[in-house]
Write a structure and sequence with these properties.
Elements: H1 2-31, H2 71-85, E1 98-102, E2 114-122, E3 136-143, E4 150-152, H3 164-216, H4 229-232, E5 251-253, E6 261-267, E7 274-275, E8 281-282, E9 295-302, E10 310-316, E11 324-330
Antiparallel strand pairs: 1-2, 2-3, 3-4, 5-6, 6-9, 7-8, 9-10, 10-11
Length: about 325
């Protein structure tokens, strides 16, 4: 099995070399269209690129670098390259190589619309694939006029599909590419989620500071500035939600469960249309200096649990154990007086 694999691999290498040589010659022809086509843009009957079977190739010039301008010199350089790259090609250049206009493979009738290029080389005795006892290998190439299409036809053996080695190499390369693209996608996705989270945290932080600043600015507000605090804010006993308010006190700790934190505050509503922290309307006297009862509000932090994130809530007027949720996603909350 290993011997057969080596034979197939060596045969594939030689065929690839022959195909590359044919492609090089075709590119040289495309670079000199006037030497291959007539004034009617049809393939010429005779051309310096043509070489009949049994005739010799033109002699190569002393140097083929850079490529000569003359067509015959180019053809000689190409024959010299084929002799150097294909095994045993030097003995077959005259007898087996030909370049001609053909109506179908092998005819070389000077008609038709296809250009046929035949290459040959020698293989080892007894090393031919598919048990064919032949030493010469051939690779005909067909070119449509103007070089618009090229097809290959191998009379000694036609290779169909990919070899196992080619398939494994292609699979390995594609796997690495897929892994690389997947890793890039995951990194970008992770970075996107992180940036989104950071933006959300910053937005929550700004809103929390704005809300607290807005509510704390109301603490101790009196409709009549000449009223003393003790008169405007009378003493209140401890309730289920707030500690005791002494006369004149406007800010006290909230009564909270373990892990919770918060504070209670009170103020007199300003004249006009006003709302508490829950968005409820506050009824105020029509007289801007008329006395009114103080509004009591409570801001409470509820710590996060396994099922829910930490939240900051607020209730006002009719205090509740859990007020209106203001901000979600908080980890901790500290108060300092």
């Amino acid at each position: 099995m290993q011997g057969k694999t080596i034979q197939y691999t060596a045969d594939s290498v030689e065929r690839n070399k022959a195909a590359m040589l044919g492609s090089n010659l075709l590119e040289s022809m495309r670079a000199s269209p006037k030497a291959l086509y007539d004034v009617k843009d049809q393939m010429a009957t005779q051309s310096d690129f043509f070489k009949a079977k049994g005739s010799a190739f033109p002699t190569a010039p002393s140097s083929c670098t850079p490529l000569p301008d003359a067509v015959k010199d180019r053809l000689g350089c190409w024959a010299e390259q084929a002799k150097n790259e294909l095994p045993g090609a030097g003995d077959l250049l005259k007898s087996d190589y030909y370049i001609c206009r053909s109506s179908k493979p092998g005819d070389c009738d000077g008609k038709g619309s296809m250009l046929e290029i035949r290459l040959a080389w020698r293989g080892k005795q007894g090393a031919c694939v598919k048990r064919r006892r032949q030493q010469r290998r051939h690779l005909p190439l067909l070119l449509h006029p103007q070089g618009r299409a090229m097809s290959m036809n191998n009379r000694s053996r036609r290779q169909s599909g990919l070899s196992m080695i080619e398939l494994l190499v292609a699979l390995a390369i594609s796997s690495f590419l897929i892994l690389g693209i997947t890793q890039i996608y995951l990194d970008n996705k992770r970075n996107y989620l992180f940036q989104q989270g950071q933006a959300g945290n910053q937005e929550n932080g700004r809103f929390a500071m704005m809300f607290l600043d807005q509510q704390l600015s109301k603490v101790g507000f009196r409709r009549r500035a000449d009223d003393p605090n003790e008169f405007a804010f009378k003493a209140l006993a401890k309730s289920a939600f707030c500690e005791e308010f002494k006369a004149g006190a406007t800010l006290v700790p909230a009564i909270a469960k373990t892990g919770q934190a918060g504070f209670c505050y009170r103020y007199q509503p300003a004249p006009g249309e006003v709302y508490d922290c829950e968005g409820n309307s506050i009824t105020t006297p029509s007289d801007p200096f008329g006395s009114t009862d103080a509004i009591i509000a409570r801001i409470l932090f509820i710590p996060p649990t396994v099922d829910a994130p930490g939240t900051l809530t607020c209730s006002a007027q009719d205090l509740k154990d859990r007020g209106e949720e203001i901000i979600s996603g908080l980890v901790d909350f500290k108060r300092r007086y």
